[in-house]
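Thread: Histidinol phosphate phosphatase, structure

OP (GT): Posting the sequence first so everyone is looking at the same thing. Length is 268 residues per the record. Can we get the structure tokens written out before standup tomorrow? I want them in the notebook alongside the other entries.
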Amino acid sequence: MSEAPHTWLQAVAEVAKLAGDAALRHYPSPPAVELKSDGSPVTVADRDAEGKARAFIEEFFPGDGILGEEFGVSRPDAPRRWLIDPIDGTASFIRGVPLWGSLVAVVEGERVVAGAAYFPVIGDILTASPGHGCFRNGYACSASSISDLARATAVTTDERFARHPERRAGWARLAGRVQVARTWGDCFGYLMVATGRAEVMVDPVLSPWDAAAVMPIVEEAGGVFTDWSGRRTAFGGSAIATNAGVAKEARLLLAEPAGAPEKGSEHA
């Protein structure tokens, strides 16, 4: 990769803003909702937003691959790929709840080069590139320094864990230990960890287009990002994001017997 890291930060930010601003034009008036094969909702706003992002990538990075939630894969054999979730939190979006965002990442193999998470309604954008920091609206941000779970806040997307019910027990253990447990989830939960407003965000099921953008954001803010089994990866099908201070204890509480099968993403 010949381009400088700051160039990738600028590029993922621009694509995320294109997607998010396209989606914002459909918000908060609820567009018609369809159900995808996995039962998750999708709207014309999702497709419009991803289309805008893809058009930019096709124009300026025509040799790169693209993996998007709505339109699938383009050039799957390209050494560099863009991962796009045009509206992470569609269920919130269609109900007029502002805690949704647009996620974009650039990856080479399974190495994340840069990621951006844009929250159009609240006016925040987070960007990060490994080794070069995490930035909120252009200013460096960091996870909290709390190391006592009794003072911590933990968040998740849906505490029912409908697609992974065997993980409810771990969440219940964690929620019983922290000071605050809430469902301020989807990508907003990772923003909270990266900016020091929550210490733990968990997703029992997570797709690569959800995880790739937020992994460097959490890590470059000083946090820890793993899948549910503790592997440092954006491609493990699940996520536990924490600050450094509660990382070990939170993961011990969430731990489950090995061998549970992964299923489709709970993000909607």
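GT: Both are above now. Quick notes for whoever picks this up: The first helix runs from residue 5 to 24. Confidence is low (pLDDT under 50) at residues 259-263.
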